[in-house]
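Protein in question filed below.

…
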Amino acid sequence: MNWAVITGASGAIGRAISACLAQRGFSLVLHYHSAEEPMQKFSFEISRRYNVDTKILPADFTSENSTRAFCETLESLKVPLQCLIHCAGGVPSPNSLSRITPSDWNTIFSLNATAPFFITQAALRLFVPNSDIIFISSISTKYGGGENTLHYAAAKAAVESIARGLARRLAAETIKVNVIRAGFILTGAHKKMGRTREDIQERISKIPLRRVGTPDDISRAVSFLLDSPFVTGSVVEVTGGD
């Protein structure tokens, strides 16, 4: 039985992808940041429902030491890895252009670009033939971010460049590398960022399909990429036409 690693598995998108992969028969290594009890419960439910093995690993990817420890632990598991999904990310330090500090910049890049690169580097020793690496990016890369998220957009653009480089370098090892560029996906993160119902409705009005995306929309794109043996180095937009 082959394994999949999902970072950010405690978030709405990470949970949807985890359930999707378990349904496909993958055993799972589930990363979370700090919510251990909910992650333990989710891990148990996934294992019982789909009859797969699960492991949970904590890490704070804004911390170099924590990321390094995660990589070391991941390598030590010595599981046959067939899928690595980078879902962990976000905007822990939103700020306007004139107020972004070096600390804000470094935090955003550590979480959204640096950690995914070094986790991938560590995982290379575990991959079996015909494996997949998928990075979850953001539509913000097309527009340079919102009023307070320029640094986030820059970090996600870096991730997309990393993915293209990896795709070329790993093709000979039969490892596909792709990006899912997520549009406006309704998760709890929007409330944390202070967006009101009116803000959300206004945002939806600008999406050609006139609806918000869901975590399941992203997990369907993951399934598409796993089932597509001739797709690598690609950016798949799941944006409703945005």
